[in-house]
Amino acid sequence: MDFDRLQCANDSKEALEKLEINLLLQGIFHWYGHDFRNYSYQSIRRRVWHRVHAEKLSTILELLDVVLHDADCLQRLIADFSINVTEMFRDPSFFWHFRKQVIPLLKTYPSIRIWHAGCSTGEEVYSMAILLHEEGIYDRTKIYATDMNAKVLKTAKNGVFPIEHMKKYTKNYFEAGGTVSLSDYYTVSNNGVKFHPSLSKNIVFAQHNLVTDRSFNEFHVILCRNVLIYFNRSLQNKVHNLFYESLGLFGILGLGDKETIYYTEKKDCYEEIVHTQKLYRKTK
Length: 284
Hints:
Low-confidence stretches: none
Mean pLDDT: 93
CATH topology of the largest domain: Rossmann fold
Strand order of the largest sheet: 6-2-1-7-8-10-9
Number of domains: 2
Number of helices: 10
Protein name: Protein-glutamate O-methyltransferase CheR
Strand content: 15-25%
GO molecular function: S-adenosylmethionine-dependent methyltransferase activity
Pfam family, one: CheR_N
Structural class: alpha/beta
Number of strands: 10
CATH superfamily of the largest domain: Vaccinia Virus protein VP39
Domain CheR-type methyltransferase: 9-284
Order of helices and strands: HHHHHEHEHEHEEHEEHEEE
Oligomer: single chain
């Protein structure tokens, strides 16, 4: 009986916590227009409690009250919701297969448009610029790098990264099929390493929210890697519809290693390019 009462109390506590989180997300949506209601619940829950403690508050409802009256606190919470884990040539085999399987297709186009959706601080964007440069097609490529977080976009646009990361990035670069030395592409300063301006000349950095914003161009390639895992199934389908609308016929969609086109409404509109990689081609 005591166990049953304890279990009932725990269930009630979890239900109340979920209600408070839903109220917070509804309040943000209705007051500010930012929609996080279909993000993965467990992911949102961790970030909400992080912000509660960071603001020296005790409850989620206290956080809601502060957020509704303090736009700066809202921005801090949005930054918490923004996922900014990335590195140059992350998952090197993805970039190796992109070089071997996708680049030959892109070389047939007179001009190329690539969308990096959820680009975070930009390491993978510069990785793609380097790859395209080495394959001789960067000059006819425009890369659109977008994220909902203005702060990380500023970092991406500056193109300055910590020097202590370069050993790992160099290893990734060679495993991804790099042909020279990664250090050829950057200079070292007191602030870290800065990638050469020639790499960013064809990159457009801009804010875009996958949840609320629409398609803004037609692309030959869309890369959105390790972003959709933080969305629930309904929101994943919504974003996949956005990508479908934004890809030209035979366009390439690249996802993260824990993501897939299968189990989405658009699964029958793509074919695998490489069985071991999350690279798909739009076929209808």
